[in-house]
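Subgroup meeting minutes
Present: P.N., E.W., G.H.
Scribe: E.W.

1. P.N. recapped why we're keeping a running log of single-chain structure predictions: easier to compare across weeks, and new members can see raw inputs and outputs side by side.
2. G.H. added today's entry (763 aa).
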Amino acid sequence: MSNFQNGIFTYYLPFPYLREQSMRKSSNFAIENLIQANMNKAILTAAMSLVAACGFAKTNISITTDKTQLVMQVKDNGRLYQTYLGVRLSSNVNLDELTMPRGETSSTSAIGNEVYPVMGTEDYFEPAMEIRHADGNPTSVLKYVSHEQKNVDGGVQTVIRLKDELYPVNVTLYYIAYEKENIIKQWSEIQHQEKGKVYLSRYASSMLYLESDAYYLTEFSGNWAKEMHMSETPLTFGKKVIDSRLGTRATMFAQPFFEVSTHSNIQENTGEVLMGTIAWTGNFRFTFEVDNNGELRIISGINPDASNYLLKKGEVFRTPEFIFTLCQNGSGEGSRNFQRWALNHQLFKADEDRMTLLNNWENTYFDFDEEKLTGLFGEAKDLGVDMFLLDDGWFGNKYPRNNDDAGLGDWQAMKAKLPNGVPYLVKKANEAGVEFGIWIEPEMVNPESELAEQHPDWILKLPNRETYYFRNQLVLDLTNPKVQDFVFGVVDNLMTENPRLKFFKWDCNSPITNIYSKVEGENQGNLYVDYVRGLYKVLDRIHTKYPDLMMMLCSGGGGRCDFEALKYFTEFWCSDNTDPVERLYIQWGFSQFMPSKAMCSHVTNWNQRASIKFRVDVDFTCKLGFDIDLKKMRPEDLQYCREAVKEYNRLKPVIYSPNLYRLVSPYKTKHCVLERVSDDKNHALVAAYDIHPDFNEQLLPTRLGGLDADAKYRVKEICLMPGQQSRLSYNGKVFSGDYLMKIGLKLTTGEDMSSRLIEITKE
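Output recorded in log:
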């Protein structure tokens, strides 16, 4: 039966089951919940009579996008099971008849496929939740109470309430289905009212089940300067775990994304694939377990390792959001789903422009002063970029920041380098016609700093062990409200002093290396979780006070790259590795989930064997920047950069489009070809790269995607070197969209590290 109040449909299960006398407590519990929901006693009596007369009626909960459907069902035992995940079903399908959970042996005893199974119940595989009650009991049996669905921004939210009938423990499951983007987001909330200490040892955001004859997992691994390396492996019986326990620079070794295909290897344009990620700027874990029946369960959430969480009475433990798409047309479709969803619903300031910039880091490193910096402002204006970004090395006086050994934490302008302070630089940059941005690393501290001397209790550090330093620094304790005030103050003080500051590059170079917090005391298992929550509290304060401030998320490269952080940051730094060849692989990996608007890519001197054109063309497909000494460039190279910036600004709408078609993979060939298409299909940009082609290899035409088959398109090569003419035989010619998508163009060559950008415009 259902109730409608305030525009929200609420569904109640009057009796989980009535047949077993031993389950009367469960029935009483359900009745109690109905009364609490303010139902009229007469309605309740009628409901009881109806159930007694007709027997148990299944309760189905359906979560749908335009293309995908997830169905859950309350079984006779009062527990919630997943009965379907796949292509959206027609309205003619009877949801009551969907496949029962695997291993079900009777109407009152079911195992497998439980939506949120708890350790210690009859499910023999990896659970979603593990709890130890105040009396030492190590499990909970969660029974359905009610659910409701309502419209929210961009989609439909489903809220499902579960409760342990013996202990005052509540678990609420949340789902938001974004119909048009074919994205589903889910998370859980756990709460109790017990007297005494209750510990959570597992607390997943999601558990999903797939059934197929084969599964193939693509994971994204790496290290510093080797981020987002893609590799595929078959999943067979047993577990495969992808996780991180680095705390702050959490994704240095494993990025929080995965793809699972069924039946065959993952393909770009064909086949079923589930793509998922966790929105959490900290430790995460994905567990893939194939059971004895060949069914795959996927568990996603915070990594519970070293995080046995003490949950206080009345406290709500909210897990991070798990976000996924299930596609029937390969990972390319999944990428377009994710990118469109991010631009519509998640990325900070997604509907606003992004500033091109000149950064001084690889030009000057720590060796600069006011005169050198102000000279760079003019170079930035001449190049045509929007902003100058001052990187590391501008702060510290007692312990000057002339290398990475000292000064971190002392956020005052260094008088020896900047006698007139940051306000002078902002003023001079604006006079030169560019905006000004600045680098900070506010969560970290060098032992050689005034901050470390004055507040040693603010630092995460083991009290009785030798201290381990990563990059000569330690991590501040963001579980401490005083530290949260300090970190907020780093931004607040700079903005108060310099209200025309437009941009912060927020770095985070160290993992948590000495895992102990004085604030947490005996509850050290809460540290990893509470640290991330403390970070979000700081970022919330910054957004509240400075809603127009743009920030880049950096962490020794791509060590932080999750969608929760991107609620606060306009973009992220993919990698410190700016070698254009390596960047093709890194950016190919990130493009599986991330929109180009969020992916920072800078032209530098890494790999000077590559031409400036090749380097610029690689960065052209992302959020463009420069980190190079312009004075040392050849005149024709500098002129190419100027013209490329103009073209980039003109083409931003199509460069930032979510309609990405990855046409030729660098993982499978010695080439890479990408295409972006506007929503109206009037405009497209193709970027083609030859990496290290084989001698005399056969070069075939590349078929494009996403165009209007019936339309005519003019093909033109753009961004040529000064004085260069296009060598493409089809340059300037007109083709039908059908021709371009079925026959294609010869876009690749046999030249080493060569590139071309091709604009395609509807006639």
